[in-house]
What we know:
Layout: E1 7-8, H1 22-35, E2 38-39, H2 41-44, H3 49-56, H4 61-73, E3 80-84, E4 100-106, E5 111-115, E6 125-128, E7 135-141, E8 146-156, E9 161-164, E10 167-169, E11 174-180, E12 183-191, E13 194-195, H5 198-210, E14 214-218, E15 224-230, E16 235-240, E17 243-249, H6 255-269, H7 273-276, H8 298-312
Antiparallel strand pairs: 1-13, 2-14, 3-4, 4-5, 5-6, 7-8, 8-11, 9-10, 11-12, 14-15, 15-16, 16-17
Helix pairs in contact: 1-4, 3-4
Amino acid sequence: xxxxxxxxxxxxxxxxxxxxxxxxxxxxxxxxxxxxxxxxxxxxxxxxxxxxxxxxxxxxxxxxxxxxxxxxxxxxxxxxxxxxxxxxxxxxxxxxxxxxxxxxxxxxxxxxxxxxxxxxxxxxxxxxxxxxxxxxxxxxxxxxxxxxxxxxxxxxxxxxxxxxxxxxxxxxxxxxxxxxxxxxxxxxxxxxxxxxxxxxxxxxxxxxxxxxxxxxxxxxxxxxxxxxxxxxxxxxxxxxxxxxxxxxxxxxxxxxxxxxxxxxxxxxxxxxxxxxxxxxxxxxxxxxxxxxxxxxxxxxxxxxxxxxxxxxxxxxxxxxxxxxxxxxx
Length: 329
C-alpha cells in the first residue's frame, strides 16, 4: 500500500514579489491554529485533507497547512507544502520517516519563511541561504501546556538522501535541521521542495498506523480546550480545559459532557456531531489509500486542466535551482 513521495522543484513563479508583513504572518499562523484544529475524525468519514478542510474546517497537518495557505492567498501571499520528518514525541513505529508537512513562503530568491501549523509554531522560521547559524523561534507543546524554544539551522544535501524505498530527497536540496533547544539530540528536518501528493504519500500511512481517531481544539490562549482520543474501537478519553472528564465507552458518554462539547464539535461537524465522533467499526483494520484531489469536482478539474494545457503548452517556467553556487532557495 506504500506510495512514493512526489517532489517538485520550486519555480520563479513560486517567489512572492511583494513585501511580506511579518506581523501579518504571526497573526495568521495563530488564527489558523485556533480556527482549524487538528482532527482525524473527517478521514474516518472517507474524506481527504482538502475535503476535511473545506467541509469540516479541521484535519491533520496537511489540512491545517492547506487552511493556512488559503488564509495567505487572501493577502496575495503564495506558499507551498514541504515534507518533513518528525520529533520522537510524535513518532509511531509504523510511520515512514517523512510523515509530516509544513508551509513554506518564498520571500525572494534568497529568503523564505517556514510555518508549521500542526506543530504549533508561534512564529515563522526565517530562512536565508547566506545564514547557516543557529536561530530560535517559540513553539508550544499543547499536550503538556509548555511553551519552549526551537533551534533551527539551514543545511544543504550534497548527495541523495534515501530514507526507504518510497522516500528519497534528491541532492542539492536545502533542509532545515530543527530541535528543541533543551534537547539537541532529538532532531527533525524540513525539506525545501514542494510535495505534490501529501495525502497519498503521508496521510495514508499515518492514518493506517494510528488507527483510532482523535481531536485537539485550542482556545484563544492556545491552551488545550477539548481533547478527544480513542483508546480502542469502543473506548475514548475526553479532556476539557485540561481536565479529564470522561474515560470509557462511547455509548456511555453522559449527556452533560456531550452538551459541554456541543459548541466546539457542532462548529465543525454540525448537528450530527455525535455521529461524527463515533469511531467506525473498521477503524482498527482499515487501510487508507487517499488521493490528493477533490473528488467531487474531479471531472471539472480535468476538463479545465486540459484547456489550460492547450492554451499554455508553449509557455515554459524555469526551475529555481537548488545548488549552493546559485543564490536561489
